[in-house]
């Protein structure tokens, strides 16, 4: 039967393999927007309104300010994938930190027993 430390090492190696599979990353979010124009005779001003769109936007923070960029539908699909990769990357790193903390505890207890 594997020791807990060996189990943690195995978990960590699995996380390393997952990490290697993460593609390009990007922070922010992609939004699908429908807008109204200022023309009073336009369909977007009707009741109920039929707004213009969809328009795709990528929003992120740069120097503590929100920056928004309009995207084509193809670009929006790419950004969605990259943002999902970023979330996956952060989850993997958080799991690596948790596994490392558990392994550290065992290693430190073992070191204390052998030296003291």
From TrEMBL:
InterPro entries: DUF6788. Residues 7-76 form the DUF6788 domain. Pfam families: DUF6788 (PF20586). This is DUF6788 domain-containing protein.
């Amino acid at each position: 039967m594997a020791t807990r430390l060996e189990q943690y090492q195995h978990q960590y190696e699995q996380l390393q393999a997952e990490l290697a599979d993460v593609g390009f990353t990007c922070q922010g979010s992609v939004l699908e927007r429908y807008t109204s124009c200022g023309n009073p005779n336009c369909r977007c001003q009707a009741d109920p309104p039929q707004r213009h769109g969809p328009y795709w936007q990528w929003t992120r923070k740069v120097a503590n300010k929100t920056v928004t960029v309009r995207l084509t539908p193809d670009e929006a699909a790419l950004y969605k994938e990259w943002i999902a990769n970023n979330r996956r990357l952060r989850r993997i790193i958080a799991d690596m930190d948790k596994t490392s903390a558990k392994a550290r505890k065992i290693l430190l207890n073992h070191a204390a027993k052998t030296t003291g």
